[in-house]
Amino acid sequence: MFNYLLILLLINIKLIICDETDKCGKNCVEGSKNFYDKENNGFIKQYENARSSYKNETCENCECYLNVIENDLKPFQNGITENMLEACTSNRGVRYQLINEKWYRSKDCMFPSRCEGVEYFLINLKNELPNLDLCINFHDWPQIEKHHKKLIPIFSFSKNSDYYDIMYPAWSFWKGGPAIKLIPNGLGRWDLGRISMEKSAEKWPWFKKVEKGFFRGSRTSHERDTIVLFSRENPDLIDAEYTKNQAWKSDEDTLGFPPSDEISLEDHCKYKYLFNFRGVTASFRFKYLFLCKSLVIHVGNDWNEFFYFALKPWIHYVPLSNQATKNSYRKLITFLRNNDEIAKNITKNGSEFIKNNLKLEDIKCYWKKLLKSYSKLIKFTPKLNKKLILVKNQ
């Protein structure tokens, strides 16, 4: 008797749910299917639109990045004066001069390994450039906001649209990247990192990868909170945890859970979908993730490095809003699982672009074109500032 009443109750509940949700008169399962088809079609439309409008331009001689140089230098078309560079104080940047094929710089550098990372490229180009005078910022954040009354030509590795800073390839392409327990001396030697990542990618071909999203990183931005919380509720879809950083004091700083162990960049390759978030500004991991031959999901588009603009959403990576909800993460991972060929195609495009167009010689190429273009805007003859010291290892 009890079982009979239970069955009747379940039938009534189903009828009520159908009555509330089935507006078209079809059964609930079909209504649910139509809902997911709509979401599915929305993603497919973005993918198809991106493909139809994409022009696969050449990147020979770093040509695909030249528009970044043009846009960054446009505010300085009236010329760069010596007076402008006098604003290069120690809290903003390090003053560099190239005089007769020798580099000189300010005596004090707050981040010596970062300076060395940039100086590797400068020294390589010293015989190919005219005399120069410039200011390089080694902080994580840019310096010259657009509401700033004084236009100052400061080079920074990352910025958003609110800043006038001139982007240059980050020091971490050679030395001075983030130092973590697994890389105590800091991320660097992009040329060697590429080899290591490609070897790991070979161990984890597409069909062997774990079919879930993955993220590991410290809580440098609250934009990362949603994915961590979603992962705790849906570990079958996403594996995302916070690691410890220098600001960590208690589990409260990692959303109430103990910090996770760090995971090497190479071990990211085990997973099919890799999430990239901004840190303080742009994230150094972004370029590495592509070399896993996993699908990169790039969250937010505010903060950039010079090469970001050549990478196109739905062609080289999948974009996701930095305001994405838990439901947004669920919908996206579900879509990717159900559309493996699309995911695989985007993955191939992204990994090949980074492999072919972001080699160490491409970084040298960008530096050369950037500094030559900058030199044409200098309206004075650079003369050695006696307060500067000779850069080592020339």
TrEMBL record:
Pathway: Protein modification; protein glycosylation. The keyword Protein transport does not apply. GO terms for molecular function: UDP-glucosyltransferase activity; UDP-xylosyltransferase activity. It is found in: Endoplasmic reticulum lumen. InterPro entries: CAP10 (IPR006598), O-Glucosyltr/Glycosyltrsf_90 (IPR051091). GO terms for biological process: positive regulation of Notch signaling pathway; protein O-linked glycosylation. Residues 1-18 form the signal peptide. The keyword Glycosyltransferase applies. It comes from the Eukaryota. Residues 128-381 form the Glycosyl transferase CAP10 domain. Protein O-glucosyltransferase. Catalyzes the reaction that attaches glucose through an O-glycosidic linkage to a conserved serine residue found in the consensus sequence C-X-S-X-[PA]-C in epidermal growth factor-like repeats. Regulates Notch signaling by glucosylating Notch in the ER, glucosylation is required for the correct folding and cleavage of Notch. Belongs to the glycosyltransferase 90 family. This is Glycosyl transferase CAP10 domain-containing protein. It comes from Rhynocoris fuscipes.
